[in-house]
Every structure is written in C-alpha cells, then in structure tokens.
Amino acid sequence: MVAPEKPRQYQVIGTRPVRHDGMDKVTGRAEFGADIRREGMLYGAVLRSPHAHARIVSLDASKARALPGVKAVVTAEDFPKPGEGNLDLGEGSANPKWLMDNILASDKALYHGHAIAAVAASDQHVAEDALALIEVEYEVLPAVIDVREAMLDTAPILHEELRTNVRARGVDPAPDKPTNVALHMRLEKGDLDAGFAEADEVIEREFETGMFHQGYLEPQNATAFWSRDGQITVWTSTQGAFSVREQVATICGVPVSHVKVVPMEIGGGFGGKLPIYLEPVAAMLSKMTGRPVKLWMSREAVFQATGPTSATYSRIRLGAKRDGRIVAAQAYLAYEAGAYPGSPVGAGAMCAFAPYNFENQVVDGFDVVVNGPKTAAYRAPGAPASEFAVEATINELAEQLEMDPVELRLLNASEEGTGNAAGAPWPRIGAREVMEAVRSHPHYNSELSGDDVGRGVAMGFWFNGGMETSSSATVNADGSVSLILGSTDIGGTRASLSMQLAETLGIGAFDVKPHVTDTDGVGYTAVTGGSRTTFAGGWAAFELGQQIREQMRARAAQIWEVDLEQVEYGDDGCIRGPDGKEMSFKELAGQLSRSGGMIAVSATIRKNTAGPAYAGHIVDVQVDRETGKTTVLRYTAVQDVGTAIHPAYVEGQIQGGVVQGIGMALNEEYVYSEDGHLLNSSFLDYRMPVANDLPMIETVLVEVPNPGHPYGVRGVGEVPIVPPMAALQQAMYDAIGVRFNEMPMSPRRVLDELLPEE
After folding, report:
1. Are 546 and 571 in contact (CB under 8 A)?
2. N or C: which end of the chain has fewer CB within 10 A?
C-alpha cells in the first residue's frame, strides 16, 4: 500500500517501469563473476586451515609445485609487507596488515577455514588435487568463540600486539597488555544517574544474538590478469569496484593507477561483498604465471571464511515515569569482530536508541576479536542486534506500565530537532509518522484467533549514507541519454538513477540508457551500500540533468538566434522560446551535431544530507508446542521511504529485509563445536527462510520527503531488517508466555522452554 498523496507531482518518479537490465537477466546474457573466460586462463584453489586457532610452524609446497599441470603456488610470503594506516572499505576500514593476514594467513590461522595458500593450475581438478600435497605443520592453540569469554583476562589471545583503544570519557585507559578487546567506545547524552533517580520503574535485561550470514546466492569470485607492463585487471563480483581497486593496489604494492577493476553483475551482496578475499591472490598468481587466473569459493568456503554479521551480547537498562516517559537509558553492547578488529558495534551503538528522544543515555560498545571469520557488513550492520535488545525491553516495559506498546513509543518518539545519541539535532524525520501508521493499521487493530497465537510490534532505524559518487551522461542524436555509473546495481539502481535523470530532463525512463562501467571509465564512486546509492546517485543524476538542461537551452538559443534569457526548459522536456518557438528534447538532440557538437556532462557529488529512515513492523505468529516450529501468519512492514522512486523496487527491498530478519529471529545461526569448527557450512544445515515459510508481506510506504535531496530520497534497503527480531520475540511471548532473549528462537530453543526436563 502506498500513501495516497505525494508531496509533489512527478512524471517518472513513482511509476513502475520494468528493469533496464531485465532482458539481460532473464535471457542469461548478463555476465556474472564466474562467467569470465580469458585466453590461456588458469584455475585456482585455496588451501584452508582445519583449525580455529593454530600457529603455522612450517609450510612446504614443493610436492604441489611438482604436480603436472600446477603452474604456481602462492603464500603470504610472496606479497610485499603491508604498510601502516587504515584502508576505507566502504562500510568500515581495515588495517592493511590484518587485511592481508585475512586474505592469506602469515604466522597464525585464526579461524576454521582461514586461507593458508593458493594454487594455480591448468584446470580446477588439478588445482584442488594440489592442495592435498601442500604440507603444513600446525601448533594447535586454544580457541575462543564466545564474545564474553574472549573479554576475560584468562582468554586465549589472538593478537599479541592488540591493545584496547578507549574512546570513552570518564573511563580509565586500558592497561598496556595483550587483549581481545580492540575498542571500547561510549556515547553519552544528559545525566544518566539523575535520570534513573527520577524513574518510577526500572527494567534491566540481557540479550544474545547469533552469527548470521548474508546468504547471497553467488559465491565470491575473482579473475585477474597482471600484464607484463605491470597493469592489473580484475573482474569480480563486488559492491564497490573502487574499494577493490584500493585494496588490491595496497596488498600487491602497486599504485592505484595500475589497477583496473571491472565489476561484474552481482548475485547478491547485502554488505558481504564489500571486503576482498580472492582478488589479490588471483593477481599474484597471474604475476607468477603471466596468465589470467580465476578463483571462486565453494559454498562451504563462503560460510567458513567470508564475513557474517557479529554475534552479540547486550545489556539494556531503562528507567521510566509512571506516565510512560522514559527518563534514562543505558546500553552495554559487546560485538564479535571475528579474527580481526572491526565489528559494526559503532553503528549499533548509534542506532540503539535512535527512534526515541531519551534525554539521559549512555551506550558503551566493545569490539572484540574471537576465533571466527572476520565479520562484514550485513544490511544495517550492527543495528539489528542493538535495536532488538532495546525494542524487546521497551515491549516488556510497556507491559509493566500497562500501556499499549505503540502508545509508549509515540510518547517517547524522536522528532525533528531532538538530539540523537551524539547530541546533534535530527533533521526532518518520519519516526512519529511511522508509529502513527502502525497504530492505525487494520493489522494492529484486528482480533487474534486460534491457540498459541500472538502478535508483536517493534520499531527500527538506520542512518543512510552519503559519500562520494561520480557519473557522466551524453545526449545522443536520437534523443536518448547515455548514463555512465560507477555504482554496482544490486537492487535496481540502474532504474532508480535513470528515473531521476529522466525526471530532471522531462523525458521517459527508457530514454535514459544506464551503463555500469569499470574504474577507468568513471570518476571515483563509493560502494553500493549504506542505503546510499539511490540518494547519492540521484543527486549526481540531478546535477547531470541540470547541466544538460542549461546546455540544451543554450543550443536552442543559438539555433533560434535569440538571447538565452528568452529560452525556457520545461519540466515536460520541451524547450520554448519567443514567438511560439518550441522544440522537444528529441528534436533538439537531432540538431546538436550541427550546432556545436554533442553534449556530454559529468558530475561528482559528496552530500551529507542523507535522510535517516524509520520502520515499524507488526507480526502474528502461531507456535506448535509439539515441534517447536513457529509459523508466521501475517506480517506488515511500515516504513518512511522519503519518496518512492520506483515503488515496486521499494516494496521488494522492504520485503527482502523482512525475510532476512525473520531468518535471524527464527532459524539462522552459525553452529560451532567447542574447538571452533563450523558445523553447518551449507544451505542444507544453515536454515534460511524459503517461500513456503512465509506469508505475503504487506508493505506500507510512508513518504516524508528528505529535505536534503532534490526528490526527497531516503535509503530504503537496510532499515527493514532491523525490527523483525524484536517484533517476533514479542509475538512469541504473546503466543506462549515465554520471552526469548537469545536469537534465534529455533525449534530446539522453543522446545527446551516448553517441554519439562526428564
């Protein structure tokens, strides 16, 4: 359901054209990473650690190199020593040494599946056979896989050189000794002690969430050719070609100008295809052999060695007046980073209380290394865990206060001008509008029927990003416009960006021809992530459109031999002059070559006016007490989308996020043995929701335009994954009277609570 009135009337925005790349996708013409074929190409395979924590005593690859068909073997020693500093990964950053160690381990293997060495051979089977001939001697060390255990002084230490970086006022500096706690951060606002002293009701609860994988269908892949003139070309499935370029250049020790990255079509990412794993390995094997080298991961390797989201432990304390006004809020958040620092705890801390105007609050966040794969971004990274803990506590507080949970939220809602966690005022936001839409929705006001049936509600928040984006456009003689993009298209951004350029020019959506190009074909463009692409790319498209409009006016003035001030460019794409002179965009485009040449423009933007996004979800469930299975009966997702550029894509993004959140809440989790071996590294054992697990998911698009964007855009892709865990937890409590503070609420956990111990 779309809100019935739009703030502005548009010709293209708000319509639902088919995908510009739809024909390529449905006919198989689109090329994904694994489709690459190059003359003389070799095939690679990666040797992975069987241990979660082990010192690499020695490595002998002589037998592998002697195998017929093997052309090269590469280890960490074959790469230049990484420099100092931090590399921008799009969503987060990385120390080059730790980035290199994650690509190929140097002195220690730090998780089950950690890459140790790689082989290039004439075919895939020979490469895989060669792995068994690489002799590695390990000194197995104790592993730690739980965030709270890793924080203890008695825990096995992963990095002897790691010290806690304390970013918290009023907290003593960490002692100068090895630790697994990479970061302690704090966000403060108001006077927490005074707030709790004022409270009539205080509630404190603890929560845990599992480690969840993005579950994209296409595994990681990379093909590279290091030519004799020192130029490296990389073909890969990535959310950020320029980020890959930077990382490959750093790891391989070459200038960025020597690296060209060609982004292939991407079979899903959700943040998991921001880091690199194979690209420098393929490049170095290519340098050794003088031939292109192709690598891709098995599904088992994807689960073992690519970044899932953090498992977390949270503690939430809220204090409220009897009228429902929450006067104090405190959060303790400990996030697993995996084998190397860099969990999304910072984002989790900033999002935790974001839907609400709590005057007194403190959030402490801890980034903790454990013997697991380095975590990566996953759709609103960090926010689902922290907001689950807060939302679940608010739902329980509402029960204690005997208040409707939505009314309690409305009483404490963030609004324009109220301060966020850092004290800065919010811009125009739609938190209250979303809550009001939830409160008035027929789903929320309907009656429940049946045994062991319950309903839950929760809010969610995500910032949305800006960052840098470049694009260019060319007006063609037939009246079409070629749009060159540097943003990988994951969720339909070819369409959303083309539609914004078309709207600016007053032409049809399919008169714009979008092309995603490589890093040599467009200016620097940040990653497709952070819910930034339609916002930032839309700004660039608007700027391109404005430039084209001005140049088209000038050409018309030249052709008509009138002053420029006498020519107007209409929003309908028609150029008008004095005495009834008029030309359509297409007619004028046909005369450009005879009036000074074709028009080509470019734009680079870096806006910090991204619009924060809010969502509210309602869910009904039924629990089978005999099997522990939870059936989702009905789901409604309300979201402030700013302006729905392509409503069908917006609805799809929301529905996809909901499904992934349902997976986190009910089934998905990494299962490790005590010694750190991953036990469920397949889609058979890692249980993701499929179509017959779900009802139709209703979407309600609330449109509170972002004043920091010419078309009111807010990012939509990430916030819908945030509310499901808390909404489902409340629905489960409503159905069977049990509050599950550990996610997922799998059938095993449900039965453990419902069945008496024998």
Report:
1. no
2. C
- Listed in sequence order, the residues at least 6 apart from 2 whose beta carbon sits closer than 8 Å to its beta carbon are 644, 647, 701, 703
DSSP secondary structure of 179-229: -SEEEEEEEEES-HHHHHHH-SEEEEEEEEE-------SSPPEEEEEE-TT
Q: Is 326 left (phi over 0), alpha (psi -120 to 50) or beta?
A: beta
Taking only the tens place, the pLDDT of each residue in 348-364 is: 999 999 999 999 999 99
CA distance 588 to 579: 17
Nearest to 380 by CA among 308, 463, 439, 312: 463
Q: Containing domain of residue 587, as a range?
A: 22-30+466-606
Give the pairing of strands 481-485 and 512-516: parallel
Q: What is the DSSP letter of 564?
A: G
Place of tokens 């008029």: 582
Query: Which CATH number belongs to the domain containing residue 576 in this structure?
Result: 3.30.365.10
- What pTM, to 2 d.p., does this model score? 0.97
Residue 493 belongs to some domain of the structure: yes
Coarse DSSP helix, strand, coil percentages of the chain, rounded to the nearest 5 percent: 30, 25, 45
In a domain, 199, yes or no: no
Three-state DSSP class for residue 667: coil
130 contacts: CB under 8 Å, gap ≥ 6? 45, 64, 67, 70, 73, 119, 121
**Does residue 635 lie within any of the structural domains?**
no
How many whole angstroms separate alpha carbon 647 and alpha carbon 743? 32
HSE value, Cβ hemisphere, 13 Å, CA-based, for 478 = 6
Give the count of alpha carbons within 13 A of 602, CB side only.
11
Per residue in 464-497, pLDDT (tens digit) is 989 999 999 999 999 999 999 999 999 899 999 9
Q: Sorting pLDDT into bands at 50, 70 and 90, what band is 7?
A: low
What is the rounded distance in angstroms from the CA atom of residue 629 to the CA atom of residue 405? 26
| Structure tokens that stand for 402 in this block | 């005997």
Max CA distance (Å), the chain = 95
Q: Using a pLDDT cut of 70, give the percent of the chain over it.
A: 99
- Total number of domains constituting the chain: 1
Provide the pLDDT for residue 422: 79
Strand 582-584 vs strand 574-576: parallel, antiparallel, or unpaired?
antiparallel
Q: Please state, in angstroms and rounded to a whole number, the distance separating the CA atoms of residues 167 and 181.
A: 12
Report how far residue 92's alpha carbon sits from residue 312's, in angstroms, rounded to the nearest whole number.
Answer: 18
C-beta atoms surrounding 200 within 10 Å:
12
